[in-house]
Amino acid sequence: MNLAAAIPSGSEQVLAAAPLAGIEDAINAVFDPISAALSAFVFAEITIFGITFPWIVGWLVVAATLFTVYFGAVQFRKFGLALQIVRGRYTRKDEPGEINHFQALSSAVSGTVGLGNIAGVGVAVTIGGAGATFWMIVAGLLGMCTKFVECTLGVKYREYHADGTVSGGPMHYLRKGVAERIPGATGKVIGRVLAAGAAVFILFFGIAGGNMFQANQTFAQLRDVTGGSDGLLGGGGASLIFGILLAIVVGAVIFGGITSIGRVTSRLVPSMAILYVTACLVVIVVNITSVPAAFAAIIGGAFNPEGVAGGAIGALIVGFQRAAFSNEAGLGSAPIAHSAVKTKHPVTEGYVAMLEPFIDTVVICTMTALTIVIAGTPFYRDAQASAFAGGETPDGVLVTSDAFGTVLPGFPYVLTVAIALFALSTVITWAYYGQKAWTYLVGKSRTTERIYQLGYCFFVVVGSVLTLDAVLSFADAVLFLLALFNIIGLYLLAPVVKREVAAYRQKLDSGEVSRIPHSSRR
């Protein structure tokens, strides 16, 4: 979820009254040097064998590749089992947890599917060519295994509370798991330090990137389609009113906890996915004669692109980078939602979690890229020519919107609905992620939860009114810094996951775990 790559055109014009602009400038002034330093480290590029790429992308892709080999390509072998589990065929009603497998999956997907799937992909196919789509798919398929590992651990090391709720995620499996793998006081100290760092990173991004950024960009898009600064939402107080209304909607959901969030996202995620994918299919069907040429461009461009900076390697890096930024495999965020699932067998949710990068990257990101390539608008071709020549790359949302506009003249309104749904689902899910990080740091009680929830709703309003570019850039870097610590933990705990796989396979083979009749499912 790279924030910089997802900002729609015109976002810099988000309204801020003069006094608020002063506050915004003051906050940005404080965060500017911090953000610049951290971003320079997290997104620094390295060169290996003549290939230059951000080291954090390499860190994520190498881990995904190694886990795929270590677990024998489990994402392909157990894809069918994952679909059966998410339908409730192997889990009974009375198993521990708060939400069913489908609700856990939809909650996690809602946190990753967002503006990056629309705008970020537009950037990818512009600067990486059609071939970037191929490598984006490859990276998404590899990332499925990373999600399998981290979400299995999230369930295995989750904590149960007296009120029946559960808490999981990197804060817990890093603390407990690392202490198990490294005996003595050293393991305990390392585990606690990694866990505390993970909690802080998640909390900060939840408030800034998962909340303020989403609210800000949703209002920006709404204002743009209603006539800009001179339109319906052009008044100075429009952003404040919008922020308050959005905060009320978000508060109504998150005050109910993960069960309420699961109910909402289990309806919201399929709705927004169907809406967006249907729009993509309309463009593809209308341009059906261009489909073979588009696939040829995607496959051919992956290995022998013409004009792309860096050639085939350039297309590969752009595709891998977009996939990593989109599905967040290895960042440790998704295991928080998946940990709330009702199951006695941690590996079952690991299987379900594999579907998340598939939906986010292999399906939605690919549909966006395919739509852009098939439409082949003059704007897209001009943008590519500019990018290949070293010029500026236009905002990705313009590339995507222009492609849809060839078939759907009113698509800016459809896009606005899609952005609103994507943003709302992301805000709701990251509210839960941030709350679990907050209660890990300060303790879990009704009071601490309410303080966080009220504060989170307050920042929804702040995000609608202020832009705070430096804060959002800092949050972006913080989230990916989490991958550095999280994946170290995943390497250490991979043997634990392998034991869980073996134990569950034995139960399946012995008949101890079997398909459940419909009447006994959740």
TrEMBL record:
The keyword Transmembrane appears for this protein: yes
TM helices/strands, residue ranges: 51-73, 118-142, 189-213, 233-261, 273-299, 411-433, 454-472, 478-497
GO cellular component: plasma membrane
Main localization, broad class: membrane
GO molecular function, one term: amino acid:sodium symporter activity
Topology relative to the membrane: Multi-pass membrane protein
Stored Gene3D superfamilies: Amino acid/polyamine transporter I
Origin superkingdom: Bacteria
Leader sequence residues: none
Keywords assigned by UniProt, alphabetized: Cell membrane, Membrane, Symport, Transmembrane, Transmembrane helix, Transport
Subcellular location: Cell membrane
Alphabetical list of NCBIfam families matching this protein: agcS
Family statement: Belongs to the alanine or glycine:cation symporter (AGCS) (TC 2.A.25) family.
Protein name, as recorded: AGCS family alanine or glycine:cation symporter
Species of provenance: Pseudonocardia kunmingensis
